[in-house]
Amino acid sequence: MKRDLDQTDRRILAELQRNGRLTHQELSERVGLSPTPCARRVHNLETAGYINGYSARIDEEKMGFGLTAFLSVKLDQQIDDRLVSFEKALAACPEVVDCWLMTGTRDYLLRVAVSSMEEFERFLTGRLTKVPGVASIESSLAVRRVKGQMSRLG
Q1: pLDDT digits (tens, 9 = 90+) for 85-116
Q2: Which pick of 4, 76, 121, 136 has the fewest CB atoms within 10 Å?
Q3: Average of pLDDT values for 32-38?
Q4: Whole-angstrom distance, CA of residue 146 vs CA of residue 127
Q5: In terms of Cα–Cα distance, which of 30, 88, 27 is closest to 54?
Q6: Which stretches does DSSP call E strand in the chain?
Q7: CA-closest candidate to residue 148, choices 65, 59, 72
Q8: Predicted TM-score (pTM) of this structure
Q9: 59: which residues sit within 8 A by CB, 6+ positions away?
């Protein structure tokens, strides 16, 4: 974390990470500031890019996506055109909820959320294996989430 954040800024970020719907009044009480300076700090954190948006965390299982798989993908070539075309193809796949470009023996790590093994198979064989440049795929199914948090703040 950048060094120019003080403890109050870090507390603000941690509280908002836990609950992004806090009012300025509630937030100011939790971090020990009056509402106006607290709101000013939140605005400064947003402007500086420390806060880049607000969203709701959705329970994927309740939404019908109870199967989570992690896939390591290796491309046939790691050149700019191949990376760009692969990333564009993934952008059109709603099953892929997270994607990282990686170092090491694999090029990408994907997190896929689907409703069933049949849907996973359709995604894997019907879509991902057909993306140009995919050389190999290794998949692992998640048994259960042990820990999940947005950052090291909270």
Answers
A1: 999 999 999 999 999 999 999 999 999 999 99
A2: 4
A3: 96
A4: 29
A5: 27
A6: 67-75, 96-101, 108-114, 134-141
A7: 59
A8: 0.81
A9: none
